[in-house]
Amino acid sequence: MPISSENNDSRVSEIHLNPVNAEKEKHDSQNNIFNEMPLEITLKIFSQLDIQSLCKASMTSKSWNSIIRNYDSLWKPHCLTVRAVCRREIDNDLKSGYSWRVTLQRNYQKSKVKSEWLSGRYSNICSPINLPEKNMCPMDAETWGEILDAELER
Question: According to the UniProt record, where is the region Disordered (predicted)?
């Protein structure tokens, strides 16, 4: 049976339009799956992420950002890890009523710098000019006292 030109054009249009529509439908259904997922499962998935991945996930969508920002329990394990280096700072922030997320924000960079100081990374630096400025952050006198004590013991 011969195919008319009109039928052929309609098939070509379908071929060009269907993949685009199918891709859009696939994308929309994927978004719906995440939006319809029970909160408990979403929280369980987010709780398995490291700090960097959790922060990246929060930038994925408004709904994920809201969940990650508002469920403080997601930040507690990370904050407790930082507490290994910044025990006094973390405990003081928690006593002052800061959330786990805010406490982590306030102390994460400090824990990295303090850990490097305590490990002796900067022990042989003779001048402030030689300090890696981008890695430094403000620290209180008690923290500097801890670092000085560690240096004196070395």
Answer: 1-28
Is the pTM for the entire model greater than 0.90? no
Q: Would you tell me the crossing angle of helices 39-47 and 62-70 to the nearest 10 degrees? A: 70
Comparing CA positions, the residue from 98, 104, 57 lying closest to residue 84 is 104
Render pLDDT for 104-138 as a digit per residue (tens, 0 to 9).
Answer: 999 998 898 888 888 888 777 777 777 776 667 77
Residues 80 and 93 in one domain: yes
Identify whether residues 68 and 105 lie together within a single domain.
no
Q: By CB neighbour count within 10 A (0-12 exposed, 13-18 middle, 19+ buried), where does 52 fall?
A: exposed
